[in-house]
């Protein structure tokens, strides 16, 4: 991995730009996904320091893109740090090999990919590695398998994540209560102050409220554009639902609300 000499000295500015290689395939999964054709059309996704959120409906390609960025950044596609090399089942797409990442002159002190759907396997690998060289303290002192799903995520971001790190999080809210989301939001703010860069795919209107974060939304045509908090899809839909659940239930349920 090449670290550019044109140094960007802003804290938390490690990964500056993600684009598709000029000679990348254009057909089949994942290259025909709108988010991937959109990435090719736009010339790529610029990333600033601090936290960048990626939002859009289920199936829009967030995980495909996050996994590919993780792979291109030298991380395990199933999750973990740069030292995790296990594979439970090779399901990653070929996109990681076709992404070109541009880095600033700053090198992150550590990197970690949290993938909610496969954290169970990461936890098993943490236990295995701990038997070789003790490392559970770095995760809060208890195996993630002996914590609840949400507790293990909060342990991870609280204890394992540290200053000047690069973190990729795919739906961290999957395990979290509202209070858990608020705890992670507060921890993200601390990590930004400590010079971290974090890319988060999320559906959580709570996490999206992090002050100073950039929110990028994948459009119908696959274009990835910045949006304001109030305009972000998870925020608009959740707000509309909470303002009048009956209006939604009338459409969703044959007999309407009781
Ligand atoms: N191995 C695969 N082969 C073919 N299509 C796939 C494969 N994996 C995922 N897809 C498709 O790619 C699309 C994008 O999936 P992806 O998991 O990236 O979406 P997502 O935005 O992360 O969704 P969610 O919000 O539900 O997590 C989906 O339509 C999915 O069905
Ligand atoms: Mg996903």
Automatic annotation (TrEMBL):
Designated name of the protein: AAA ATPase
InterPro entries attached to this UniProt entry: AAA+_ATPase (IPR003593), P-loop_NTPase (IPR027417), Siderophore_ABC-ATPase (IPR051535)
Compartments it resides in: Cell membrane
The keyword Cell membrane is assigned to this record: yes
Organism: Actinosynnema mirum (strain ATCC 29888 / DSM 43827 / JCM 3225 / NBRC 14064 / NCIMB 13271 / NRRL B-12336 / IMRU 3971 / 101)
GO biological process, alphabetically ordered: iron ion transport
Main location class: membrane
Membrane spanning stretches: none
Gene3D superfamilies: P-loop containing nucleotide triphosphate hydrolases (3.40.50.300)
GO cellular component: plasma membrane
Every AAA+ ATPase domain range: 48-239
UniProt entry keywords in alphabetical sequence: Cell membrane, Ion transport, Iron, Iron transport, Membrane, Transport
Membrane topology type: Peripheral membrane protein
């Amino acid at each position: 991995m090449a670290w550019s000499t044109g140094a960007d000295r802003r804290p938390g500015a490690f990964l500056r730009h993600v684009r598709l290689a000029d000679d990348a395939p254009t057909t089949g999964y994942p290259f025909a996904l709108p988010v991937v054709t959109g990435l090719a059309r736009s010339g790529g996704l610029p990333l600033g320091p601090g936290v960048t959120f990626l939002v859009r409906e289920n199936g829009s390609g967030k995980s495909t893109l996050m996994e590919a960025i993780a792979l291109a950044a030298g991380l395990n596609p199933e999750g973990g740090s740069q030292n995790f090399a296990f594979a439970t089942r090779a399901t990653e797409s070929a996109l990681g090999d076709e992404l070109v990442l541009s880095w600033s002159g700053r090198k992150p002190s550590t990197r970690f990919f949290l993938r909610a759907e496969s954290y169970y396997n990461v936890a098993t690998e943490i236990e295995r590695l701990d038997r070789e060289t003790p490392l559970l303290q770095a995760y809060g002192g208890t195996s993630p398998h002996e914590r609840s799903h949400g507790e293990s995520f909060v342990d991870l971001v609280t204890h394992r994540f540290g200053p000047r790190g690069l973190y990729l999080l795919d739906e961290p809210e999957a395990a979290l209560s509202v209070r858990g989301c608020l705890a992670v939001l507060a921890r993200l703010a601390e990590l930004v102050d400590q010079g971290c860069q974090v890319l988060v795919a999320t559906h959580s209107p709570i996490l999206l409220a992090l002050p100073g974060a950039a929110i990028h939304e994948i459009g119908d045509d696959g274009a990835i554009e910045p949006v304001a908090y109030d305009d972000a899809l998870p925020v608009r839909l959740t707000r509309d639902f909470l303002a009048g659940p009956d209006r939604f239930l009338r459409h969703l349920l044959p007999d309407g609300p009781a």
